[in-house]
Fold:
Amino acid sequence: MSGLYGQNNTAFSSATPGPTPIHDFGKQGQAFGFFSYPVTAGNTLTLLLSAARSSNQLPNVPGLAPAFELVNVPEPPSSAVIDSYLDFSDVLAVLSLSGSLGENGSYQFAYSQHAITQRFEPDAVGELIYQGVASTASHDDHDYTLEGDVSFVRGAHTFGGGFYAAEYRVSASDSSLVFPANSAGEQTSVVPLTVVNNAHADNYVGGVYVSDLWRLSERLSASLGMRWDTLSGFSSGHQLDPSIALVYRPDDATTLHTGLARYFQVPSFLGISPTAQAAFQGTTAQGPPGTPAPLTEHDREWDSGLVHHLGEHVSLSVDGYYRWTTHYLDTGQFGVVPIFAPFNYDQGHVWGAEAGARYQCEGLTAYANLTLGRNWQRGVSTGQFNFDPAELAYIDGHAIVLDHQPLYGAAAGASWQSGAWSLSAAALYSSGLRAGFADLQQLPKVFQADVSAERAWRIPGVGALSNRLAVLNALDRVNLIRPAEGIGIFQSAYGPRRTLYDTLTLRF
Structure:
């Protein structure tokens, strides 16, 4: 069992480049418990419980120009004093039974309940004046799932099978203050009106699979599988997905793998609001027409790579992948309610490669990784009302680079331990993400270096006491993660400035 409570002034990534965020206080509590009971020899009953809750100020940006006029507010407040909050709660319980089925079989069955809540409390005056809409939003998702897996070993084969069945009860209660507007979205009155937009759906997700791990020889094995999934509720869809993977070990130092698979992915239900587009027509929160409910995503993916050990201390790895997507699912924070809303692109492809090296010997560990990749998508097939019409038209006619990954990146680090001392250093480099109109803007490069030192003492009759000093972003570099403009972005985000942590740990 464990518990945690914390307070800080970095609830979210800072919206300004300075060392101290503005209006970014957060407090959070977490609790976790894991309980295990051997029912019989080889059969175990386990219970996992977790809970988390947080209250977070939404960070502000000073110096913004008011965009709308509000009745009885002749002097608009500064954008630095807007007082909006985003709160979360998450409670999970999983009860499972696992064990053996004779000498060559095993099983696991689990039942879970999961409740997630996101609530946004706006600053009504500030949000109206600077954004044209102030939404009080409450989104809830209560899930009930049952799943099971069994496997049997028969000669050179390990056969497996399983199922998944879940009900996701999702509701959204949104009440928004907005201004009346003409067809061009221009404010026509300084008196706001209230738009109520509620939604509810019971979403059902199910799936079954069979698999076979086939040891073709001492050096070669194949993994074959077939899976069927279905979804109904806000969205609907189903798909049969085959997969095949081969693993070959030409010698004891080298492992090669390659595989092909088809995937079926469901949208995040919590941010879906099918009636939002129609509800806000004729207001300052209106958008172009479009399909409100997201679709399921369908992918075909290939992956190949190898791992090679150079002697006892050095290992090298390289991997490449390509994914062809249909109705690629993405999420964004559209408007001023920072609850992610899902939408689909039409067609695209994702490719990438990565290489890594690792060195390990007594007292010293070091690693280095390189990545290269792109995510291209074209056309918007759902959620079109979240986009500016000009941007929507451009994406429908051009493939764009999504802002999920940089073109290339690198990470390296090392740690050394000798007696009671432990030292470590790590660095991260990125060529920068994309942003702006249709993600055409290339952001600056990102670099962050972290260092730490730890000293341990043995206290007779008490235990081991350690003190660890860690410095994040030791060079105090300003790293822009995203600007205020971009697809599904409404506010800038910066990486942490130079930060010092001092951690005391007592083990007894």
User: Anything to note?
Assistant: The chain has a mean pLDDT of 93.
